[in-house]
UniProtKB/TrEMBL annotation:
<feature type="domain" description="Bacterial bifunctional deaminase-reductase C-terminal">
    <location>
        <begin position="10"/>
        <end position="158"/>
    </location>
</feature>
<dbReference type="InterPro" id="IPR002734">
    <property type="entry name" value="RibDG_C"/>
</dbReference>
<dbReference type="InterPro" id="IPR024072">
    <property type="entry name" value="DHFR-like_dom_sf"/>
</dbReference>
<protein>
    <submittedName>
        <fullName>Dihydrofolate reductase</fullName>
    </submittedName>
</protein>
<dbReference type="Pfam" id="PF01872">
    <property type="entry name" value="RibD_C"/>
</dbReference>
Length: 182
């Protein structure tokens, strides 16, 4: 089990993910998470350590309601990175940014005021990873195989990205999970 999340002013790429690597179903559907349980106090852990959220336009267009973040338990600045902010519907607490991802991180971290900037976008996360701007990847693996949808990480033809485990133990050890069909 991972150590509890801390508010260290880091850029945190954070998702619940299916066992086969999808963070959303087709069309950004999230109904696949119904019935998934999480460890006690998980939501409270992230709501207390998150200072701001950075998302992408596709995800925003699928779920244009900032009160849905962590089931409404979190409030704070939400930034949506888009090439077309002019056609976005103005929403309280949401800032639409048209800049490069590094500038979006700078803006988000400043708004996070010492807490974490959570990245809720596979595409933006991939770009930030390539720029060396992701401090940590935090995943919760749901016991489901989706087979289709939006992957956490897609980079066909690109080199593997080596990661180090966070927490105690060998940082290069594999992570063992075991499931049975329900």
């Amino acid at each position: 089990m991972a150590e509890p999340q801390t508010a260290d002013g880091k850029v945190l790429w954070h998702f619940t993910m299916s066992l086969d690597g999808f963070v959303a179903g087709p069309g950004h559907s999230m109904d696949w998470m119904t019935g998934t349980t999480f460890r006690p106090d998980l939501i409270a852990e992230y709501t207390s350590t998150t200072g701001a959220v950075l998302g992408g336009r596709d995800g925003w267009d699928a779920f244009p309601d900032p009160s849905g973040i962590y089931g409404g338990a979190w409030t704070g600045p939400l930034f949506v990175l888009t090439h077309h902010p002019e056609d976005a519907t103005p929403t309280d607490g949401v800032t639409f940014l048209n800049c490069d991802p590094a500038e979006a991180v700078r803006i988000g971290l400043e708004a996070a005021d010492g807490k974490n900037l959570e990245v809720f976008s596979p595409n933006i996360g991939r770009q930030l990873l390539a720029l060396g701007l992701i401090d940590e990847i935090d995943l919760h693996i749901a016991p489901v195989l989706l087979g289709d949808g939006i992957r956490l990480y897609d980079n066909p033809g690109g080199p593997p990205i080596r990661l180090r485990g966070a927490g105690a133990g060998d940082p290069f050890a594999s992570v063992d999970v075991r499931f049975r069909p329900a």
